[in-house]
Amino acid sequence: MGASRRSLSLTDSRPSATPTSSSSCATAKSPHPEPSKRSSLLNRSLRCRRRWPDSSLRRNSSVRAAEPVVDVIVGVHNDRRPIERAVASALRNRLPIRVSVVAHNVDVALIRARLGTVGDDDRVRLLELQDGVRSPANAFNHGLNHATGEFVSIVGSDDELEEHALDEWVALADRLGADMVIAPVVRDGGEGVPTPRVRASRFGRIADPDRDRLFERAAALGLQRRAPTEHLRYATGLPRGEDQAYGLELWAGHRVVFDPRTPAYREHADQDDRITHVFGPLLDDFTFLDVLRPVLEKVAPAVRRAVAAKIVRVHLVPAIRVRATAGSLTPEDRAAAAGVLRAMTDLAPSCLGLLPRTLAPEIRAASAAVAAPSPVRGRLGVVRDLLPIDLRALLHRHAPLRLQLAGRVVARRTARSAAARSRALTSGHGTQGNGDVVVVAPHGSPIADGLRVEHSAVVVGYVGSGASVEVPVPGARSRWFRDRLGDSFLGRLFSRLVGVDDSSRFAAAVRRTPTAEALLDRADLIVAADEDAVLASWRAARRGAAKSVVLGHAAAAAALAERTSR
């Protein structure tokens, strides 16, 4: 489906009647059955989607037809990197995409040869940058300077995007008017990255920089709207941490959304020459603080405290540990660590109180520039990992307990969603022509049977309903409770409020089945076969999943006829 159909709207797909002549009130009969009054009302009741004003109109205009919607920037520093994998993954989207491969301090002919047939695509262009600086910042900035699309996305040369990732991120950004969509990251082996540690209640919604701990993610992986972030560039001349100030300004001053259920950014570790992973002196790891400090001074004190605590916990302590383990922690490194610690406490005097108690001995040693004792192991160490140095901050949002819980939820949901998408692709239900149309039919339906045969639709229903993807039947307890409430108005109302009505029970079953949820997220058209399927379809619509969601056979026929005519 082309970019012109990306406006996500839940519509009553009733064919409009047109007059046979200008002087006659007669109307031509539609070739499709007329939706019932109840079906039409339910279809109209699904119009709950918010959208960034006029975004679809801008992309649909002929003026913008020649411009890409998304400029993807890939920096590459040698021809040993699997750059063709990253570029090919970015091209697996329906939107107009342009991939700019920045050949940084490497012969552009070598990169063109490495790309192979992927480089022959008209959507791929090669940009050359020869500056003699070994840093990814210059390559990314060069790509940003040449970007003209409405959105930009930065991809590592040995990483890749899941299929239709950019399509769904743009849809999410449009729906919420977001300036930035943070990508869920999945590592080799299916492990979900636990950052940013966003509250589960804010998945797929505009996040609060402080309450949703956006600063736990430094790398701006995902999608950003170019106009409001045009002034941002990566810090140059730094051996490490070029994205720290960039990420902080992006999270603190813009509308940001994160949803672990969207297609992921897949990070691979099959290359051993990542620029950002090269070991060096400890002082080099923290030269970014000179660039970060002015930005920190402008943000709210609560944000400054959280970022300072994160720098000590995520950057300083591991930097000391890895050098101590390798036997290369020099007196100069200890002095540099003490200086970093002083700088953080000067910016946020109470930041150390948020750190785990297990780090207290190492922090005291770093402050005194002496050798640190061995970390606490065993069960006591696990408990102390969850306790902050300042016990009054036990339940603080940036203290260890809530950080760990939030990160576990994010990582688990990211991994489960990625696994479900992989299973859907493996089973053949996630590809075009066999997953564009999804019929939600809890107990099976003639509508589902017909669409499965005529349009290769995928059917989601209960176990035993003959569906393509089956969800578990709810337990007898909720059914017993529903039966006791009866079918009176008050009984039905209370059933919906407590979530034991038929529609709520099926929606809950779909939510507990990642494969079914992934199929709904990838669909172009969702057809709710009956009223019990409405809530599950409505929730998919709220996530910005499908481009159209309709109820009943008549609305489905009209929507499919419109698709065929395009």
Features:
566 residues; Spore Coat Polysaccharide Biosynthesis Protein SpsA, Chain A; 3 domains; five-stranded parallel β-sheet; 22 helices; 42% helix; 11% strand; disordered N terminus
State the total count of DSSP E strands.
15
Q: Span from first to last CA?
A: 9 Å
Q: What is the share of helical residues?
A: 40-55%
At the first level of CATH, the class of the largest domain is Alpha Beta
Q: Let me know the largest β-sheet.
A: 7 strands, mixed
Class computed from helices, strands and strand pairing:
alpha/beta
- CATH fold assignment of the largest domain: Spore Coat Polysaccharide Biosynthesis Protein SpsA, Chain A
**How many discrete structural domains?**
3
Name the quaternary structure.
single chain
Strand fraction equals 5-15%
Number of helices: 22
Mean pLDDT: 82
The radius of gyration computed from the alpha-carbon positions, rounded to a whole number of angstroms, is: 27 Å
Corresponding CATH architecture of the largest domain: Alpha-Beta Complex
Task: Extract low-pLDDT stretches.
Answer: 1-58, 60-65, 274-278, 428-434
Report on this model:
- α12 crosses α13 (360-368), α15 (400-426) crosses α20 and α19 packs across α21 (534-542).
- The protein has 3 domains: 55-275, Spore Coat Polysaccharide Biosynthesis Protein SpsA, Chain A (Alpha-Beta Complex); 279-389; 427-565, no CATH class.
- The protein is globular and about 75 Å long.
- The chain has helices spanning 37-45, 55-60, 83-91, 108-115, 136-145, 165-176, 226-229, 244-253, 282-285, 289-298, 301-326, 331-347, 360-368, 378-385, 400-426, 446-455, 476-485, 489-498, 502-511, 514-522, 534-542, 553-565, and strands at residues 70-76, 97-104, 124-129, 151-156, 160-161, 180-182, 185-187, 222-225, 256-258, 265-267, 437-440, 458-462, 469-471, 525-528, 548-551.
- The protein has 566 residues and is α/β, with parallel strands linked by helices.
- Residues 1-58, 60-65, 274-278 and 428-434 have low confidence and may be disordered.
- It starts with 36 loop residues before the first helix and ends with a helix.
- α3 links the parallel β1 (70-76) and β2.
